[in-house]
């Protein structure tokens, strides 16, 4: 049997990516349709954290991105900010409430259930809106934003290169990607290469120790949340899955962080001011 032409393989790969994304989007929509009570965030968190709010570690992750933007010297008097995969919107709403200058913010998510919660919970912010869209095909014109935020979501996109190129497309020259997610150590260099290929220049910082401490300190709240919000049969059947998803102390994901089998990275990456000129 002969080899298939390369032109036949490319559509198959693209279709596989689309199919994987469709499945993940369906699962996330169901997840966000579940009654999670007052919970508005969905990240592992950062410690030490300011304040006493139940979700303070999760909010702190967003504060760390704002700190990185301020330290870069690229915080503007007015910022057009986009969060890709905003989930239930609590992190973006927290930033909106604490942003130190003028701000117009948009939260984008594929899940209608997530967006319904966002609009119900965060309508008090006149400068914060929520829209439905795909992280790999953003529904915005070129050079629409000064900053793009993406917190612990890119592992679900299946195509890092396409994601970073979409981010670069909607960022203005000199704009900033505020980014964090988990990676296996041997995949970090590949992530840096994908960012640079998209004209996004920034150092990937290892904040695993801060995330691990947040998971440890936040374990009692996460365990209580699972007990309150997950039916007992699902808790019994999916005990390990739920523990890993929440990264509670002692779980496999917690141990991955502790033993260095998985890293948590953060970046403040700047779009090249020359990239638009080069593209034209």
Quick tags:
280 residues, alpha/beta, Rossmann fold, 8-stranded mixed beta sheet, 11 helices, 8 strands, globular
Structural commentary:
With 280 residues, the chain is an alpha/beta fold. Helix content is 48%, strand content 19%. It contains 11 helices and 8 strands. Strands 1, 2, 3, 4, 5, 6, 7 and 8 form an 8-stranded mixed beta sheet that branches. Helix 2 crosses helix 3 (90-98) and helix 5 (160-170) packs parallel to helix 6 (188-197). The longest helix has 28 residues, at 6-33. It starts with 5 loop residues before the first helix and ends with a helix. Residues 1-14 have low confidence and may be disordered.
Task: Give me the secondary-structure topology.
Blueprint: H1 6-33, H2 56-72, E1 78-84, H3 90-98, E2 102-109, H4 112-121, E3 128-132, E4 145-151, H5 160-170, E5 171-183, H6 188-197, E6 200-201, E7 205-206, H7 208-229, H8 232-237, H9 239-246, H10 252-259, E8 263-271, H11 275-279
Parallel strand pairs: 1-2, 1-4, 2-3, 4-5
Antiparallel strand pairs: 5-8, 6-8, 7-8
> From the helix content, strand content and strand pairing, which structural class follows?
alpha/beta
Describe the main β-sheet briefly.
8 strands, mixed
Count of individual domains = 2
Helix content: 40-55%
CATH topology of the largest domain: Rossmann fold
CATH architecture of the largest domain: 3-Layer(aba) Sandwich
What is the gyration radius calculated from CA atoms?
19 Å
| Main CATH class of the largest domain | Alpha Beta
Q: Which stretches are poorly predicted, pLDDT < 50 over at least 5 residues?
A: 1-14
What percent of residues are in strands?
15-25%
What sequence of helices (H) and strands (E) makes up the elements? HHEHEHEEHEHEEHHHHEH
- General form: globular
**Number of H/I helices:** 11
Q: What's the end-to-end separation, in Å?
A: 44 Å
CATH homology superfamily name of the largest domain: Vaccinia Virus protein VP39
Oligomer: single chain
Q: Kindly state the number of beta strands.
A: 8
Determine the mean pLDDT: 90
